Amino acid sequence: xxxxxxxxxxxxxxxxxxxxxxxxxxxxxxxxxxxxxxxxxxxxxxxxxxxxxxxxxxxxxxxxxxxxxxxxxxxxxxxxxxxxxxxxxxxxxxxxxxxxxxxxxxxxxxxxxxxxxxxxxxxxxxxxxxxxxxxxxxxxxxxxxxxxxxxxxxxxxxxxxxxxxxxxxxxxxxxxxxxxxxxxxxxxxxxxxxxxxxxxxxxxxxxxxxxxxxxxxxxxxxxxxxxxxxxxxxxxxxxxxxxxxxxxxxxxxxxxxxxxxxxxxxxxxxxxxxxxxxxxxxxxxxxxxxxxxxxxxxxxxxxxxxxxxxxxxxxxxxxxxxxxxxxxxxxxxxxxxxxxxxxxxxxxxxxxxx
Length: 354
Fold this sequence. Notes:
Layout: H1 14-24, H2 36-52, E1 59-62, H3 69-80, E2 84-88, H4 95-102, E3 110-114, H5 121-133, E4 135-140, E5 147-152, E6 157-162, H6 170-173, E7 178-181, H7 187-200, H8 207-215, H9 221-238, H10 245-254, H11 264-275, H12 284-290, H13 295-308, E8 312-315, E9 318-321, H14 323-328
Parallel strand pairs: 1-6, 1-7, 2-3, 3-6
Antiparallel strand pairs: 4-5, 8-9
Helix pairs in contact: 4-5, 7-8, 7-9, 8-10, 9-10, 12-13
């Protein structure tokens, strides 16, 4: 099972979902729900630039997928009254690709680069000069006869987004005047998002129904909107189209999303860890084989949320199930299982050698 096949994946799931997401996105900063500190700081940056008649500082947004980085980029362009040009790091394979984009920007235009940490190194080095001096050097020819021609570009605002801020080179990060980290959402904030999306989708939903969907959304608006659409489908086919708490529970149970937002893969990892290995410690490769998945799938797709929920810990000797995991699955830990109060040296990268 890869991330795109999971109902609780925070990644966008194809062009159809992107179209629906666009319809649900807020268009103004005042309408953006959650991330209050980021919203307030960004408002000051934008309004100050507008008063001075200057382009704002470049903006870097970091955080997990589905938290609103693209939405904020669109809002920045809207608040400035400027067009938005959208590209991504993986699409910029050569310095020439970046030069082609930058040379066509109008003055004040906003350029959004998603997954900016995945940009090719030559393009990244060209971006340094473009961000600082609004100039790029275009190399014409090859070998000893090659000539660098300086090309002035219009002042622009770069909005970079990354899910892995640690992979961003220091020189690039330092050129952003405003850096913000997007946090996961609280259930109350997600309830507001679910109710707003329900109005836009013309779905009748009760407050407790919205709370049920929000509580299983893993702190991520994109997942909340996806779950809402699946609950809507269930309500239209199996009921009268309205959503209350009981119907939301039935629908999400059918889709195997439990009350904490865990899906089949998450529970399979925890169940195998506890039932087959006594709660651990066990190496990543062994754990992945036990659930029939690739190690990378378990490590990248399932583990981050389980660790964040305090259900799984990564130690130098391997993965261990926490007391909260045993309680969540209703299992009784054996005497040999890692228990609360036992000291473990946690390590995000170390694994038990296989």
